[in-house]
Amino acid sequence: MDGLHITMAFFASAILSSFTDWYFFGVLFHDRYGNTPGIWKKYKDKADEIKSITISEVILSLSSLVFILVCSHLNLLTFEASICSALVTWIMVPVPLLMTNAIYIPMDRLIVLSHALGWLSRLVITALCVSCLG
């Protein structure tokens, strides 16, 4: 992948993944966040919440950029290779982190599930962007 294709894959992934992040991290099982109110941040106002969401999206987009760069560097540009890489990355990184956090932090299990699915969707979308633009 050249720089243009990496940039296009990054922006496509960032835009598409922001919608799945909104669904999996914000909408799906939203009422379950109230089951453990001491865990989640209380916002002063809507602007404070938007600031947190923006920072989170930047961090999540950086992880997608790293995934794109690794796929490009290792020549994992086919559909099969990029999807396989996404699944391996998902099983290696966010799933163990979320599961371990769920053991020690009283998070509702459906929230843990929705966060895991959110990460899976982000990685699969990024993999699809790699394979389509690679």
Describe the structure.
By secondary structure, this protein is mainly α. It has one domain. 77% of the residues lie in helices and 0% in strands. The protein is built from 5 helices and no strands. The radius of gyration is 16 Å and the shape is globular. The termini are close together. The model has no long low-confidence stretch (mean pLDDT 92).
Describe what is shown at a glance.
With 134 residues, the chain is mainly α. It is 77% helix and 0% strand. The longest helix is centred in the middle third of the chain and has 28 residues, at 46-73.
Features:
134 residues, 77% helix, 5 helices, mainly alpha
> SS-based structural class?
mainly alpha
Poorly predicted ranges (pLDDT <50, ≥5 residues)?
none
Count every helix, treating DSSP H or I runs of 4 or more residues as helices: 5
Mean pLDDT: 92
Number of domains: 1
In whole angstroms, the N-to-C terminal distance is 5 Å
Shape: globular
Portion of residues within helices: over 70%
Global Rg: 16 Å
Report the β-strand fraction as a percent range. under 5%
Query: Could you tell me the number of beta strands?
Result: 0
Q: What is this structure's SSE topology?
A:
Layout: H1 3-27, H2 46-73, H3 79-92, H4 94-104, H5 109-133
Helix pairs in contact: 1-2, 1-5, 2-5, 3-5, 4-5
